[in-house]
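The protein record filed here.
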Amino acid sequence: MATEPRQVRLAPPLRAEDLRELRLGDEVWLDGIVWGVRDASLIRLFDEGQRPDVDFAGAVFLHTAPSVRRDGDRWLPVSVGTTTSMRSDRFTGGCVVDLGVGAIVGKGGLSARSVAQLQQAGSVYLAITGGAASPETQQIEEIEDVVWTDLMPECLWKFRVKDFGPLFVAIDAHGGSQYQAVQDRAAERLAAAYERLGL
């Protein structure tokens, strides 16, 4: 029997039991460390095999290439928007299976292969509202570290966030996908429309 979506507050590193409890549609808010990644940093992690001295078990990865400015020895966020996740789809298995990342935050969803990899790892995909860079940026308290500055702006970013969200469970750790559910409903309605038209 379907349950009503919940509102959940989590702090990375995320625990396996908390990830398993998340269901499609749950609203998630994060407090703590979120790592910003994009194509170049993921290529360096996996294609080039370079790994920083960081334990990513239970970590949260955010698909982003932020706009920042330098203030002395600090980096300040100017605009931290979210990029389309499908561009990094081939790295999902590496992130969640190899590194142990607990959640990926992005927009637009991931492939069926990534859904299976998330299920295998017990990880989730959290959807963020596209075009919401302004509130997203305000929810970043500090950029604590930047790894591989030569990749700017597609570095590995260590953000400390507060009240980061709302995020919504769009792919859960049990193989459920809201994107697939929408496609299935659309296909059913299209078939019903054709039937009514006698086609």
Observations:
- The first helix runs from residue 16 to 21.
- The chain has a mean pLDDT of 91.
